[in-house]
């Protein structure tokens, strides 16, 4: 199975900062990597698909890049509403797998 | 708008069975692979099962943790996808989400396995 390792586990930032979240795959997955935001007691929401493709309705503050084994989600100008867990997911091969998540906290 | 609405969750005892359902609307259901993903309380996300479309012979795939115990199925005429869960274990306790690929997720249904 492809293992996705996310870092950091927890991130505490000040509103207005720019943050980068990392997701590393145990094997090359091309660009079959997707990012989700999950707020407490809500379903995951797709933020970015296929490594860097933006999703309609998602603020432009969210962007991502990467291919192969190294991927990054960037959040510009962090807002209080961004308090969530962020997960990466690969659909290169079954079983599709998720990273363990990064929890974003606001100071 | 796309909607995925799960139902059928609840509290069951270990070794019992439960069938959860997902009603889909707002997209061409018969063209979409469908999935079940679960999340144990306070934990991460785990793909449980996948079912492909008719042209792909409705092929099914399962996580090792549920293989032989869970069965995913679909009814294209009703735009429904199901997950039959047999021989349930306490570690199957989770919120179960129905998804249509990466883009669309339901609100989830809670399954609790406890004596």
Average the pLDDT over all residues of chain A and give the rounded result. Answer: 96
**Assembly context of the chains:** heterodimer
The string of secondary-structure elements of chain B, in order, is EEEEEEEEEEE
> Strand-residue fraction of chain B?
over 45%
Described by the principal axes of the CA atoms, the overall outline of chain B is globular
Helix percent band of chain A: under 10%
Report mean pLDDT of chain B, rounded to a whole number: 97
Low-confidence stretches of chain B: none
Cα-atom radius of gyration of chain B: 13 Å
**Over the alpha carbons, how many angstroms does the gyration radius of chain A reach?**
13 Å
Main β-sheet of chain B, in a few words? 7 strands, mixed
Largest Cβ-defined interface: A-B, 18 and 15 residues
Tell me the major beta sheet of chain A. Answer: 7 strands, mixed
Describe the structure.
The complex is a heterodimer of chains A (107) and B (115). Chain A is mainly beta and 107 residues long. Chain A contains no helices and eleven strands. Chain A has strands spanning 4-7, 10-13, 19-25, 33-38, 45-49, 53-54, 62-67, 70-75, 84-90, 97-98, 102-106. In chain A, the strands form two sheets. In chain A, strands 2, 4, 5, 6, 9, 10 and 11 form a seven-stranded mixed β-sheet that branches. A four-stranded antiparallel β-sheet of chain A has the order 1-3-8-7, with no helix packed on it. Chain B is built from no helices and eleven strands. In chain B, strands 2, 4, 5, 6, 9, 10 and 11 form a seven-stranded mixed β-sheet that branches. Chain B has a four-stranded antiparallel β-sheet with strand order 1-3-8-7, with no helix packed on it. Chain A binds chain B through residues 34, 43-46, 49, 55, 87, 89, 91, 94-101, and chain B through 44-47, 50, 61, 63-64, 97, 102-103, 105-108.
């Amino acid at each position: 199975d492809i293992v996705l390792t996310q870092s950091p586990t927890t991130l505490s930032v000040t509103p207005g900062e720019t943050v980068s979240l990392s997701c590393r795959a145990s094997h090359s997955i091309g660009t079959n990597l997707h990012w989700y935001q999950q707020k407490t007691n809500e379903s995951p929401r797709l933020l970015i698909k296929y490594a860097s493709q933006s999703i309609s309705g998602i603020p432009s503050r969210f962007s991502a890049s990467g291919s192969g084994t190294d991927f990054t989600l960037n959040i510009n100008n962090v807002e209080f509403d961004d308090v969530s867990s962020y997960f990466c997911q690969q659909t290169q091969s079954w079983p599709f797998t998720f990273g363990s998540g990064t929890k974003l906290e606001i100071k | 708008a796309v909607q995925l609405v799960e139902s059928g969750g609840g509290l069951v005892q270990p070794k019992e069975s439960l069938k959860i359902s997902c009603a889909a609307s707002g997209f061409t259901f018969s063209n979409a692979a469908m999935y079940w993903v679960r999340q144990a309380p306070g934990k991460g996300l785990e793909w449980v099962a996948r079912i492909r479309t008719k042209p792909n012979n409705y092929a099914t795939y399962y996580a090792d943790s549920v293989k032989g115990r869970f069965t995913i199925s679909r009814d294209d005429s009703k735009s429904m996808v199901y997950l039959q869960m047999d021989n349930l274990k306490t570690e199957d306790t989770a919120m179960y989400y129905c998804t249509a690929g990466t883009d669309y997720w339901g609100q989830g249904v809670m399954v609790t396995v406890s004596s």
